[in-house]
Write a structure and sequence with these properties.
The chain has 291 residues and is of the alpha/beta class. It has a single domain, classed as Spore Coat Polysaccharide Biosynthesis Protein SpsA, Chain A, CATH 3.90.550. Helix content is 32%, strand content 24%. The chain has a nine-stranded mixed beta sheet with strand order 5-4-1-6-11-8-12-10-9. It has a two-stranded antiparallel ribbon with strand order 2-3. Strands 7-13 form a two-stranded antiparallel ribbon. A hairpin with a 2-residue loop joins β2 and β3. It binds uridine 5'-triphosphate. The site of uridine 5'-triphosphate (UTP) has 22 residues, from α5.
Amino acid sequence: MKIRKAVFPVAGLGTRVLPATKAMPKEMLTIVDRPLIQYVFDEAKEAGIEHFVFVTGRNKTAIEDHFDRMYELDATLAARGKKTEMEILARDQPEAGAVSFTRQQSPLGLGHAVWCARDIVGDEPFAVVLPDELVLNKPGCLAQMIAAASELPEKANVLAVQEVPADQTHQYGICGVGKRDGKMFEVDGMVEKPAKGTAPSNFSITGRYILQPEIFKILATQERGAGGEIQLTDAMIGLSKTQKFYGVEFEGERHDCGSKSGFLRANIAFAMARPDLRDGLREDMKKYLAD
Ligand code: UTP
């Protein structure tokens, strides 16, 4: 199964981190020195994705600008001889024509955002990557999923899964565990935020999916689910009646950067993984951890 396209839904309101997201997209929040959207773009590129589809909304033009060239900045950096900075910008620049933007006019839910990408994706399997969930690992989470998917039959759907403590399952989408083969298992049912004590397993669904294009037909019915939103999980439950879903237990630490505490933890984790910052940060933190 070849996965060429990745969809990045970036039209949400980011209410959990207001007022940071009042005038700035959540996906432009910075972990160390790069916006969230750059991390997931790099993860998809590393996984072999050739076309990057962003589903944007109001107040999200900064994301388009981020992936564009800035001639004034390039010229100023060149005039000042800032070679390293110029190399960083060049490295992060997508190839011309490899990026598409479409618009979700109202934030009607993640499922609706994915559906907005249907014409750009067309009739082929594709990845969905949520930019507010980062996974710290090499190879990245999507590369691990695509490697696992290459061993599956053509019409398979793949979810990145990770175990969470039993008392936290009610905060996540959870999947049941069927036949197992190493780090991969057949998904036996999915449930979004199960009531305490009712979860079919401890395996939470992370913000990385490989989906078959038939999901669009189900999303087109626009049925509202939890919170009045068009939910991706509901459409996946529908699709699981005719196609198989597999869970892939990935390597790496997952960070929910859409919550305040997760965002702070991610900043520390990613900074501690950087040789240029690690030692200084460790020293600085001693002061705050003293009592
Ligand atoms: P979240 O569930 O984190 O929702 O979306 P949110 O609205 O961004 O944030 P909170 O919960 O209000 O704080 C996960 C991903 O799906 C996108 C978001 O931009 C985010 O990247 N999304 C969500 C959409 O593109 N459209 C939607 O209608 C909802």
